[in-house]
Each structure stands twice: as structure tokens, then as C-alpha cells.
User: Fold this.
Amino acid sequence: MPELPEIETVKRTLEPLICGTTIIKSQIIRPEIVAHPGAAEFRERICNQRIAATGRRGKYLLIHLDSGDTLIAHLRMTGRMLCTPPEHPLHPHTHAIFTLDNGRELRFADTRRFGRLWLLGAGESDDFSGIHRLGIEPFDQAFGAAYLKEKLSRRHIAIKQGILDQSVIAGLGNIYADEVLFAAAVAPFRRTDSMTDTQWQSVAAAICPILNSAISRNGTTFSDYLDGAGREGENMPYLQAYKRAGRACNRCGETMVRTKIGGRSTFYCPNCQK
DNA sequence: AGATGCACCTGTATGC
DNA sequence: TGCATACAGGTGCATC
Assistant:
């Protein structure tokens, strides 16, 4: 599922449902989805903690607790974190349930079981979740064409792989990488060491508008993704590149093409993306 | 060091 | 119908 716009939507939709509540019971149904600390310690330590705020870093969802502990979640491909009334039917791959003192449940479900949870203590250094390796947030003021060029222009990789590299820029995934390169009119296989300054400008300038318009539509759902309240995203019909192979390019009319870059399905216009 | 490919899982779609 | 294969929003690790 979830790239930056989807996690941001989960963060925003969970916020009013869980902030200020206390976790009065926690069940870990599948211990292996807890990456740190051990599942038993995780379950015990999170109990009786009050939820202070929700946050996001790259594609990581953060739930800050009053004690200074942070519940970190990564939903990977098919994960969901949602707050529901307890009578709501259980997703068949529900791996953790946190009962809140407002009568609702915060549930983590993930069909493919790639998703992970971490509980980080106040002041504990995080060398394991992957957050420490993340690059800049796209909405950071320091992000721009100069940053991207500096980080990528000496590497010999396709630009699509460059903007998918979470240690360069945090939050883009397979859908929005294709959308960004379509908007920038840059071919996804263009090598980062052959990009012009104009192309660096176009790519950098496309990123925030693409992410913001997806956020404004609550993200993109094509199969599994739901927000924190269990609603689908509405951005799918607005995609210009992803999944559009065989259809006319919305800019020039040429037939859109699908290929593979770095093992990932990639959609682009062979005429107007250079 | 940097680039590439595969492993981790389950579910769905497609073709024979 | 049954079976084999390919593919899916992500990341980490082994290997060259």
C-alpha cells in the first residue's frame, strides 16, 4: 500500500480517534511482527500508556506516548493500522490489537506480514527500525533540485531508482515515483549521471505537488490500503502514469508503456518523457 | 562502495 | 476444475 501520502493520511485520520486515550489492554497475536523489543516486553510496556500525538517520518507511522516512548509502525505493502469499534469484524490477518479506554480498538493487520512494529523508549537510540537511514523529507525547506543533484548525479542509476532510494529522499514509492517522472516529463530509465539541470529542476519541482494532491484525496487505494478510520483513498482516478499502460498519454496522446526498472513495474510515456 | 537480485508472505489474475 | 506462473504499494541482505 502505503507511500508518504497514505501514511500521512493514516496519521491524520488516527489523530482525533486515538490522541488522549489510554491503551488499557494489548494483544500480540503474531509475535514476529514485533521487531523491537521482544513481543512480551512490547505488550507489557505499551499497556496503560496514554497516547499523546501521531506523527510520520518517510513511510513510518509514529504514535507518541506520554512517557516519551514511541510506537513505530511500517505498513510495507499490505499493512493497515486502524481504529474501530470492537464489534467491527476482525480482518483475518490481524496481528495486534490495542484496546483503548474510549471503548475502541487500534488494530494492526497485514495480509503479507511484511509490516513491522517497534516500541522505542524515551532517549533510546534507534539503530534498528531504518528511520536512522532515511534521507530528507520532501517538505523540508532544504529539499530542492540542488539537493537531488548533489545526492544522485554522481551515481550510475536510473532516475526512478534514485528517487525511490529512501536514504536520498524519504517517502516516494513505486506509484508516486512514476507520477513524479511523468509530471516532470523525464524518462524513468534516464541515468542520473546524464540529467540536465532543467531536468533536476523539473523532477524536484514535481515531488511536493504530486504528494500534496494525493494527500488531499486521502491517498491511492487500488486494493488493500485503508486510512486510520477504515476508508479508501480517492486518488486512483487521478493517476497519470501508474497502471496506465496501453492508454493514451494525457499530455501528448501517445500510447503509455509498461516496463521494468529495478524489478518494479514502471509506467511512462515513450514520447514526451525524455 | 555501488549496483543488482532475491527473499520475505499471501492473495489474485491469467493461461494452459 | 486444477495447476503453474506472474505479479502486487517495500525493504534488507547477500553477492558480484
